[in-house]
Amino acid sequence: MDAFISKLRIHMIGLESKPGQDGSGKWLLENFPNLFVIVSQDTYGGMFAHESDLGNLEWINKNILNDHGPLGAAYPKSGFHPENPGMQEGDTPSFLYLVSAVYEKNNPENPNEESWGGQFAQRDSTTNHWYDGPGPQSVSKWREEFQSDFARRADWMLPDKKRSE
Predict the structure, then answer these.
(1) Is 155 exposed, middle or buried (0-12, 13-18, 19+ CB in 10 A)?
(2) pLDDT value at 15 more than 90
(3) 2-162 maps to CATH 3.40.50.720
(4) For residue range 19-34, what is the model confidence (pLDDT) as tens digits?
(5) CA neighbor of 147 nearest in space, from 85, 58, 84, 80
(6) Cystine design at 93: which of 24, 42, 117, 152 (Cβ 3.0–4.6 Å)?
(7) Beta carbons within 8 Å of 57's beta carbon, 6+ residues apart
C-alpha cells in the first residue's frame, strides 16, 4: 500500500468550502498522512481575472471566443459568475501547476516552489500534505505568462492560414 500511495499526486481545490461534496478529501487527509496532497483553499482565486485586462470579457472575446472556431466559441463568457463576465476558472491552477513545470519554472514534487498553480507549505512535517502558502497572489503574479500561453494554445484552433505562429 505504501508503494502505491507514494505514486499518487492529488490536487484538491476548495476542499473546506465544499464540505458536503462527498467527504472523500477530508477522509484521505485523515487516513493517509504519506499521501501527496495539495489543498488549495484560496490560492486558486488568483485565477479569477474578470477584472483584469488579461482575463476580462474583452480579452476572452479577442483571444478565445471570437474567430477561434467552434471550440473557442464554446468557452464560457463568465466562468461560473454570469454577472461578472470574464475568466473565473477556479480549478485551472491544478493543471497550470503542471504546465509551468513543462517550462521548467517549478518541480511538481516540491509544492513549496513558485509555480503558475501557486505555492504551498506543509502545516505538519509528519504528513505529505501541502496547503495554501502566500495565497491567490502566488497564481495571479504569473497571469501575463499563463494568459499568453492560453492565447497561443487557442490559436491552435485556427485554420493554418490564420495562425500567428
Answers:
(1) middle
(2) no
(3) no
(4) 546 778 889 999 999 9
(5) 58
(6) 117
(7) 50, 77, 78, 85, 86
